[in-house]
Amino acid sequence: MKEKNNIDAGKIVWERFLKALISFCLFALFLAALIFSAPGRSMAARPLMGDPNAPREGSPAPAICVLEPGALKEVIISFDKPVKGGPGAPALVWFWFMSCENCVKDMKFMREIHKKYKSRLSLIAVNVDKPDQRGTVKNFIKNNGISGYDNYFDKITEHVFSADYDASDKFAIYSTPALFVIDKTGKIILRAEGHINFDLVEEKIDSAVKSE
C-alpha cells in the first residue's frame, strides 16, 4: 500500500510539472507575439543595431528580391546593374509597415518626393507586413493615395517560429520606417531609420540626381 501511494504521489508531481511547463511555454509564445506585433516594428527577427554586416553609407546597395502587389511575381532589383525597364539608381528605397505610425506620417513625404523628381529618381516602397496581411495592405495603399511609384512586398519565407525577409534582411533593417538613398553607381549615400530628417533626405536626393 505504501509503495502504491508513493507511485500515485510521483504521478501527481509529474503531471503538475508538465502542466506548469506547458503554461510557461504558452506564456512565452504569447509574450513573443506581443513584442513582435508592436506598432512601428517589422515582424521578422532583425539583426541588432551595430551589425557589422549591415549595409552602411558608402557601401554598395545589395540586390533584393521583392514581389509585385498584383500577381506576386518576383522582381530582382540590382542597383549597380538595373533590370531593363525596371527600377534602377539613383533611388530611394523605403521600408514600411502598415501599423507603423511614423510610416503612415512619412507617406506624405513620399508623395512629395515622387511628384518632384518623377523619372529622375526610382522611388521603391517595400512593405514588410506578413503575407496574410497583403490584401489589407493593397486596400490601404489604394485608399491612402500612395500609388504612382514602385510598390512592392518583401519576399517572406515563413517558418514555425520565425520568418526570413529577403530585402529587409539584406539591408539589415532593425525597425520601420527605414530608407536608403542610393546614387547612380549603386552606392548608399544615406541610411535613416525611425524618426527621419527629411531635409537631409532631400539634400542627398538632390545630390544623387544632379550627379547623373
What does this protein look like?
This protein folds into two domains: 1-36; 64-210, Glutaredoxin, CATH 3.40.30.10. The chain contains five helices and nine strands. Helices cover 38% and strands 20% of the residues. It is α+β, with helices and mostly antiparallel strands.
Secondary structure blueprint with pairings:
Elements: H1 2-36, E1 64-67, E2 74-77, E3 91-96, H2 101-117, E4 122-127, H3 134-143, E5 150-154, E6 156-158, E7 163-165, H4 166-170, E8 178-182, E9 188-193, H5 198-210
Parallel strand pairs: 3-4, 4-5
Antiparallel strand pairs: 1-2, 1-5, 3-8, 6-7, 8-9
Mean pLDDT: 77
Number of strands: 9
In the sheet with the most strands, the strands line up as 2-1-5-4-3-8-9
**Gyration radius, rounded:** 23 Å
Strand content: 15-25%
Unreliably modeled segments: 2-6, 33-49
- Secondary-structure class: alpha+beta
**Morphology call:** elongated
Quick synopsis:
With 212 residues, this protein is an alpha+beta fold. It contains five helices and nine strands; from the N terminus they run αβββαβαβββαββα.
